[in-house]
């Protein structure tokens, strides 16, 4: 499946494996490595787990969307009914509306602090407007969209820094149709 796209060969790919019975963690990890996709979702009943080729993830949005899409498209879930997946991160509520699949994420707290040197160095930055973190992710806010574009090509940052995600953004102000 490709999430976040309406055509083949784009978006964010995820494999979805519907399991007839619970599977062994080692076996799921081997399957994910063999499939070699960014994420493979394993679903038994409504118990959902996600694996990259190298490790299990505590949460994965695009693979959750893919799993729900498979259930809705195959008729294993009625499109008018929400799905509640049981995951290591707690219950995930998913629903279909206007031919789109939605996830109701619980907000995650971030703790504001100064951006650590290794994060700035990995992103090739001198400074950040704002930096926040939790146990699994970093959020870095920059001055301009151009700065964000400059760091978007840096691959493997999260793995290098030992977190699940590094999210980089900038505020954009639009006045009278002009981007400032």
The helix-strand sequence is: EEEHEEEHEEEEHEEHHEEE
* Helix-strand category: alpha+beta
Strand content: 25-35%
Largest sheet: 4 strands, mixed
Shape: globular
What is the number of helical segments per DSSP (H or I, 4+ residues)? 5
Low-pLDDT stretches: 176-180
Walk me through this protein's architecture.
With 180 residues, the chain is of the alpha+beta class. Helix content is 24%, strand content 33%. The protein is built from 5 helices and 15 strands. The protein has helices at 25-35, 61-74, 117-122, 145-152, 157-161, and strands spanning 2-3, 12-13, 15-18, 40-44, 47-51, 56-57, 83-87, 90-97, 100-104, 111-112, 130-133, 137-142, 165-170, 174-175, 178-179. Strands 3-4-5-6 form a 4-stranded mixed beta sheet. The protein has a 4-stranded mixed beta sheet with strand order 10-11-12-13. A hairpin with a 2-residue loop joins strand 4 and strand 5 (47-51). The radius of gyration is 18 Å and the shape is globular. The model is unreliable at 176-180 (pLDDT under 50).
């Amino acid at each position: 499946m490709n999430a976040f796209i309406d055509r083949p060969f784009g978006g964010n790919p995820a494999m979805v494996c519907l399991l007839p019975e619970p599977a062994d963690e080692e076996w799921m990890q081997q399957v994910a490595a063999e499939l070699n996709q960014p994420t493979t979702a394993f679903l038994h009943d409504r118990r959902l787990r996600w694996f990259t080729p190298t490790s299990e993830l505590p949460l994965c949005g695009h693979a959750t969307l893919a799993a729900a899409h498979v259930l809705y498209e195959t008729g294993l879930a009625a499109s008018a009914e929400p799905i509640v997946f049981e995951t290591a991160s707690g219950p995930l509520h998913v629903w279909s509306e206007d031919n789109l699949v939605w996830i109701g994420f619980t907000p995650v707290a971030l703790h504001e602090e100064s951006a650590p040197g290794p994060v700035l160095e990995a992103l090739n930055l001198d400074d950040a407007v704002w930096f926040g973190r939790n146990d699994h992710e970093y959020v870095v806010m920059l001055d301009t969209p151009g700065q964000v574009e400059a760091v978007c090509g840096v691959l493997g940052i999260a793995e290098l820094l030992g977190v699940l995600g590094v999210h980089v953004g900038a505020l954009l102000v639009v006045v009278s149709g002009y981007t400032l």
